[in-house]
Here is the input.
Amino acid sequence: QVQLVESGGGLVQAGGSLRLSCAFSGRTFSNYGMGWFRQAPGKEREFVGAISWGFGRTNYVDSVKGRFTISRDNAKNTVYLQMNSLKPEDTAVYYCAARVLQSAAYDYWGQGTQVTVSS
Here is the structure.
């Protein structure tokens, strides 16, 4: 069974940076595509970005392009979300998720970590 544990959230001023980590366990990490999602109070959960298994291709929602970067370290079974130039509207609970190989659905989710950006 896959387990995902996020860390690295916190309070930061607008313009600042945070790096979130997501530790993966239970299966072969390199076989899983990893995604980051977020949910702000009163809003639907939103896709932030993802990194594929294999070649590690990334894609992002337009609102974070150029500011957020996803990377993975297969030796450490960890995926990262580097967030720069943070804005108050980035405030949300951030979740990582995993999907195996070419599966379309994310089957496994972490518990989330709170990111709060003050203006």
Q: What stands out?
A: The mean pLDDT is 96.
